[in-house]
Amino acid sequence: MEKINLYIENNKQFFQCDPGISLSELSNMVSPGCKYPVLAALEDNMLKELSEKVYTSHTIEFVDYTHPDGRRTYVRSLCFLLQRAVSLLYPDITLFIDYALPNGMYGELRRREANGSYTTVPAGADTIAALLNKMKEMVKEDLPFVKEKMENSKAAELFRANGQFEKSDIVSSMEKFFVSVYSLGDSKDTFYGPLLPSTGCLTLFDLIPYQRGFCLQSPSANDPEKISEYRYQDKLSEALRESAQWNSILGANGIASVNSVVNNGNANMLIALSESLHERKYAAIADMIYQRKSVKLVLIAGPSSSGKTTTSMRIALQCKVLGLNPKVIAMDDYFVDREHTPLDENGEYDFESIYALDLPFLSEQLNMLFDGVEVELPKFDFKLGKRVPSGVKMKMGPDDILIMEGIHALNPELTKHIDSSKVFRVFASALTSLSIDENNYISTADNRMLRRMVRDNSNRGVSPESTILRWASVRRGEERNIFPFQENADVIFNSSLLFELPLLKYYAEPLLNKIPPLSPAYSESVRMLKFLSYITPLTPEDIRVIPPTSIMREFIGGSTFKY
Q: What is the CATH code of the structural domain delimited by 4-64?
């Protein structure tokens, strides 16, 4: 039998073997040198489960928990383990994984009523303990996750019989004859990516009570040998819960529901309702600012592509309606001169550090403004790497308020020398609570990456490949400088919109299709394209209905505001 040549990316070596070898067997033979157990593999930049067999020459890269695809494979398998435990212990209950929390995934147990609606069954300590014990039992049994190809119609019928109506509708709408269905015991389900070989690979997890449901925790991305201590972030959780409740009121329990609205020609109503909700939120935030008569500074922070700029402008407009006079100050103009910029662990300038800002000078100018003193605002010259005179002078009147946005806006260090009663803090983020189906949630980070990709390509000439390759670095900065402080906000503004995924598909899908197979961004583009394949795009006619003040205009163009 003729051997096949495989290039193992992990150790940069070629390996010859017989065709038909599984990726699991190959991993054991080549010892790829991963720090943690191998969870999946990239075959020519296409993510594959370890049971996949190789028959021709390929480039193979094995991934462990330190790789995003490894973590996603682990989490998908963990969700199926929990689902199996629910079906064994509570067969009349449906598991819903609703959205991601900072240290896990929030889910609930729900019972379907005769009228088709769902009622949450509160998950008490005894229920959580029983589920956790059952999951640990199945891990010890090392049960296999088995994949099979099933006709779409049969799979849809199966999921409907299981009470997974959103999943059934998604499968029915897929333009394929077959769908991959996984089995764990006699439980069957579909996931939007590969699973681990068996339950025995799920060595670390936890299930803790939270609100009316639970938080399913997996290992820390920074240290896969431990689970991060849970941080109860009630403001964030409440914003996600409110979003999920709003979706439910509109009958949008998953992507299939939104697709139905778009397919039925009612996208304009969905757009109108979503924009009306945003308008009410902007007005409510302005009311909160107005009612706190002492507020002189509004600070706005949020992760990349959360729509901070539009959010600040919309809040400013609502403040003007109430008789306030908002003035914008650019935080970037308060950088220290470049030679005073702190260094990172590699000895390079750390422009994301809060100490890259001249905090004493910023506090001095703000306090002078609050006292009615006229100041000359600075201007940072990025070419020279230093502050230069701007010639712009500012003095605050009794109805004036300052608005400042930036990654450090919620960090207490920024305003520790300012009277806290004068400061109002807003955290803006696209907190997606819409799910693909009952137990496959949509990543908020994925949503924001699509936003950034569309904006970068249309407004900044940045390729989709570059956006994907930079994204990991962007996320590390958010984890360090933004998310630890989000609970300091007086209010959390959820900038997501129910129609935005159908909108983003229209713009992002052609961009993702341009990424070539040999690109290091290809596997991520394939994953995103697969996700977008479940979504019905808006039409150009639908897009024209989106108002010019919409936060989505910050990404697709056509906004009233100047960016």
A: 3.10.20.30
